Structure formats: structure tokens, C-alpha cells
Amino acid sequence: MRAAFYTLGCKVNQYETQIMEQQFSAEGIDVIEISENSGADIYVINSCTVTATGDKKTRQLLRRIKRQNPESIVVLTGCFPQAFPEAAEGILEADVITGTYNRASVIGAVKERLATGRRIIRIAPLQRGKERAHFEDMRAVSMNERTRAFVKIQDGCDRFCSYCIIPTARGPVRSKPLKEIQEELTLLAEKGYQEAVLVGINLPCYGNDLGLRLLDAVKTACSVPGLKRVRLGSLEPELLLPGDIAEMAKMPTLCPQFHLSLQSGCDATLKRMNRHYDTAEYSQIVDNLRAAFTNPSITTDIMVGFPGEDEEEFKQSLAFAEKTAFAKAHIFMYSPRPGTRAAQMPGQVSNACKEKRSAEMIAVTEKTRREFLQSQTGRLEQVLFETDTSNGMYHGYTCNYTPVEVPALEDIRGQIRNVRITGMTADGQACFASVE
Fold first, then answer.
1. Is the pTM higher than 0.90?
2. What tens digit of pLDDT does each residue of 77-95 get?
3. Which residue in 117, 154, 157, 111 sits closest to 136, CA to CA?
4. How many other C-beta atoms lie within 10 A of the C-beta of residue 266?
5. Are 245 and 210 in contact, with CB atoms under 8 Å apart?
6. How many other CB atoms are found less than 10 A from the CB of residue 420?
7. What is the dihedral of CA 105, 106, 107, 109, to 10 degrees?
8. Radius of gyration over every alpha carbon of the chain, rounded to an integer in angstroms
9. Cα–Cα–Cα angle for 253, 255, 257, nearest 5°?
10. pLDDT tens digits along 175-188
């Protein structure tokens, strides 16, 4: 029997798919390459519901797979069914539906479907307060062909930004104990992984339920023998305290790349979003990071077209993005999510306006990206090489996540090599370098 897995969304979803693949393999089921017409007996779609576009992609993918593979079992799991169970149940192409609380139950649900032929729907209700769930026991033993290991150390969110459905999809904050983090990373390092990325739904909230802080997890990760790099996933900026930044800067294996979710560069918009910082605080955190770390990169997410965002607010956000000079930014248009406060707010922005603002914000942040990449020219850096390209180049990343391409006469995938950055590629998305 063969199974294929599709992952939509974030690095946390990617990690959880990896865990499910391990569980299926342990049951004697062959996990095969992703392909809609690969002839798999089981297709598992791990969904994302951050935006309405993510829901649409999930629906389209389910229907296309079932149409092409009518005899296969199609599984829908992840954030979409957890947040919108009735909508998920209405997608009849899904033979098995589960949520975000228990990945280990997916294989059992598939077995039950095979044995009975019945449609299986198991979406555990959210648990908050005294009845809140514990962190689900899951440990990666490998990351397929990847050279970097993603390790989930935190789940859930209690922040309730006015536009965000994730607290409904993921529940409250839960954290992986330090001992389990150390054991998982030690195993991955022994298997040859040189870099680990710590990921979570709201990573800086790590430890809130255990009497710990993110700093404790970072110290644990950086102490693992054989692990040469530790990188952090997306961060809520206001939770990075000055003292923590100073302590992190003392850890030589911590990569100086920080993805600080901005969402808007306008204080009025941030307040409506129920974000927990203003632009002055955000700028101070960026300054603290740039002062503490050598050659750091600051990357971000920016939303355009949030309800009530007029031209003046957008101009403020645009100017702030340019002033902050992000190394890279993900720009996305506001998407109303049923069940959130923002979906009911007045001043909804038209799609045409959102598209225009998105194009303007992309232009500004692409300019600052090119400036950042150009600033890396001449630097001697260490690059972990991950892939080879069709034109005979090898592709990898520096510690601050600058993408680098080099020509090489030997296979250097999975190796960390010293390189001299010599310039920027024509498309402005990476740097050329030579191996020292």
C-alpha cells in the first residue's frame, strides 16, 4: 500500500507532515513522491487556513485528487477542518477528516476506513483553561532529503489578533519540554543534520505553560553537540526582550536571521489588528537586534488592505517598510476569515485597491531586498549548501539566510563551506559567490 502527502502552509505543517509520514512508514505503508496521479492508495492533505486562498486551494486539491484517483482514500487534516468543521465535512471528496490535535490518530482513522468503508470524521474540540491539551508527543527521526531539520517546539496561540483564525485552528499555547527538544535535536545531529530550525505557531510564547521562556529552548538547542547552526522561525516582535536578545547574541551557533511579523507599519492599523506593539517599539527591537548581532537580516510579513486602511495609513506603512530596510518581506492581501472580529469591521477594502497596494509594497520591499543583498558583496561567509540547479550551480544559505549560488566541480550538498560573495544575480533574488 502506498501513501502520498501534500502540505499547505507553514513550516509547522511541514514538520507535522513529516511525523505522519514516519507513522505511516512504521505501519508498513510506502510513502511515495508527491503527485496527483501517482497511483497512491492514500492521499493525505495537511491543510492551511490562514487565508481564504488557502481554503480554496485545499478544496480544489481534494476534488482534483479524488477525480483522478476515485478508488483512493483521501484524507483531510490540519487547520482547515479544525477551524471550520462544518465546511470541511461538506467536502464529500474527503473520506477521512481530522483536525490539529492528534496526528497519531490519522493512521488509525485510515485503517478504520479500510476495514469498514465508512466515512471517518474525528475533529477533537478545542481545549482551553484547566482542560487544555498538552503538547502532542512527536519527534522527527529524519527530514527526508532536506539538509536542514525543522523541529516544532511550540503550538497554539492566545493572542487573538482581530484578523486571525489560528487560535481557533490551533488552540492554546503548548510547549515541548526541554528534555524532549534536546533528545530530538541530538538524534538529528547524529544523523548528520548541521542546522535546525525551531518552529512554532507563536514561537516566542514557548514555555508559557511550563514556566519557561524561548531563551531556555534556544540555549538547549545551541548546546547540542554536532549541531552547527540553530535558526528561529517566525517571531512576534514585542516578546523579544532586550535581555533575551543580549543573551542570544552570546550563542555562536544561533543564526542572525530574525523574521519579525510586522503586519502593518501604521500604528492606527496595528491597533485595529489587536497587535501588541506599535511602530516605535518595533523599530527599537530591530535596532536592538542590529546592535547585538553581526550582519543580521530582518525579514517580515506585511498585510495590505486591512479594514479601515485608507491611503494615509497605507502610505505610513509603506514608508515604515522602506525605512526599516527589510532583507526580505512576504506581502499578502487581507483576507476576511469568518469567526474573526476583522471580518465584521467597517471599511472593507476592495480587491482592486488591495492588489494595487500589494504591488506598491512589493516594489518597495524588493528594493530594500536588493540593497541588502548588494551589501553582502565582498563578505566571507559560511554557506550550508542544499540543492544543485539545472545550470550547474549549487544553492545554499549563509547564517543570515542570504541565498547564495556557486559553481562547483564536486557535489557539495549538505556541506558548510566558506565562500566569498562576489555579486548579485540578475533577478536580484540571490548572490553569486566563489568557494574559498
1. yes
2. 999 999 999 999 999 999 9
3. 154
4. 24
5. no
6. 15
7. 80
8. 22
9. 170
10. 999 999 999 999 99
